[in-house]
Fold this protein.
Amino acid sequence: RRSCSSLSGEFWFSVFCMLLVFWLRIYAHYFGQWLFLQSLAIPVSSFAMQPVSMDLNYQASLLLLREEVGVMCLGPLTVLLVFAALVSISALSQKFIGRFPDLGSRFLCAWGLQTIFDPVLILIVDLAYGRWEDKTDKSPIADATKLYWHFQQRENSGIPGALLTIFLYSVIIFAGLVLFYVYFLGLHMNARMLDIYRRLNGEEADFFFPYDSELSNRELNKVIQKAERWRGANGERRKTAVYDYVMHAEKTLVRDAPEAPHDEHPEITTHVSVHTLHLDGARNLFRQFLRLPDGAIIETFGEVDASRFEKRVKLALDKAMVDLEQLVVESTAMVNERLKTSGNLARGTPTTQHRLSAGTIRSPVTNTISAVSMRRTPSVRSVR
């Protein structure tokens, strides 16, 4: 959980980015126009910096209509191209490095917002400097009024120029809006908004919901390792038994039945139980886990009974045709055979006169079900 001071620092950094981008955007805007004029070999009488603007003065009477349109459009287009380059850097960084700095994302967001409104912001500054009139060749003209005065001097009517300016600026603003939308949704803050969008609009099947008592394989390994190291005050020790319940299709002897395909990926349900061994031979169940056929690991409490599980666990077991009652019976028999004792493994009641030793026990059982049978191959894979 982030502190209030951290959130306040992020806010003020965003404000700083907005102010910094305000000046950088202005210089990028006019620098693009200056480069275009230089490419046309148009003499520029003045190109000087102002606190919140730049004086770019040239002899507009030397320019054709398409050239004047180029000068007017190259300003916001340069800002747009810079934003596109920054977005590309962010995308490449996230693709090859895995992330993009949060501070850089805030700077990009500020640049994108001002890219959208660049023509409007330039117009406001030009109006503040009084550049809406074509006074002399030594005074710069506002970008938004360039085409108006171009048509006014040649056609005695600046209305077509004003309409053309509105159209061109609308297209540029729309292009900036689309690029900013793509960035903000898919790349900003390492695609945080895309994650929120998918969470709000995704289908239930698109999400992963762990079971209520599910744990990771790493956590289970830690439990087993800790049990191996544990020693009680009276000399007690803990041992872990791993039991596999394998289900896979098998050929049957049913006449005229179609041949079942060989199952290379049998369904395996693994029962892991941790037992506490006392010096007097008593054995108590400490913890037990089930690894379902879909790979999920859940912890079971008390008896291994399907009625104790949530609905999704029951569906996973039914889909794999796992008979929990049979699994418990066979698991108990295997462990009791190893320990030379009797009882229910899930209840933790049996006692033993022998210590656990490592080994593997297999006892295949075959049941025929119509034309395809399910062979159960239970085993205590390891007893640690």
User: Anything to note?
Assistant: Residues 4-39 form the longest helix (36 residues). The mean pLDDT is 81. The two ends are 41 Å apart (CA to CA).
